[in-house]
Write a structure and sequence with these properties.
This protein has two domains: about 110 residues, Roll (PH-domain like), CATH 2.30.29.30; about 30 residues, no CATH class. The chain is built from two helices and nine strands, in the order E-E-E-H-E-E-E-E-H-E-E.
């Protein structure tokens, strides 16, 4: 997995992608990563049994989604089995079997909030009072900070 500059891994765990929707290449076992910018799933690339045994297994990115593009994260509890992590994005709803799905949902929500807060520019309000005074000689208004009247040139 390659990280972008300024990106750090917040959480990772072994997971199984049960429903390979939303642009995922395929389902199956792999590692689910949560970074400060995105949620991604990395699965082992199968190149055949002999090649895997001789050269080792390689991983490929099976699913990758930026945090602002995640619509909702929920935990689905079935009648049988463990709860599952459901991630809703524009292209579907992939379902992950991961340990502690409630903790994952909370961590994703926290990371989404942090990503939204860091993406929003900080607004600073600068208030300035403009005080004008009347010239004693001609009666025109001039800025208090200017030393002379703009109309007649008299000292203020």
């Amino acid at each position: 997995m390659l990280l972008d500059p300024g990106e750090s891994v917040l959480r990772s765990a072994y997971a199984v992608l049960e429903r390979p929707e939303a642009g995922a290449a395929r389902g199956g076992p792999g590692v689910l990563y949560l970074t400060n910018r995105r949620l991604l799933f990395e699965a082992p690339a199968s190149r055949g049994l002999m090649r895997d045994l001789l050269q080792g297994k390689e991983n490929h990115l099976a699913w990758d989604e930026r945090l602002p593009e995640i619509r909702n994260v929920s935990v689905r509890r079935g009648r049988v089995g463990r709860p599952r992590l459901v991630v809703e994005v524009a292209r579907g709803r992939p379902v992950f079997d991961v340990l502690e799905p409630e903790a994952w949902a909370g961590a994703i929500a926290e990371a989404r909030y942090g990503a939204a807060a860091s993406a929003a520019p900080a607004l600073h309000t600068v208030e300035r009072e403009i005080v004008k005074v009347r010239c004693r000689y001609c009666g025109n208004l001039a800025h208090e900070t200017s030393g002379r009247c703009a109309a007649c040139g008299a000292p203020l």
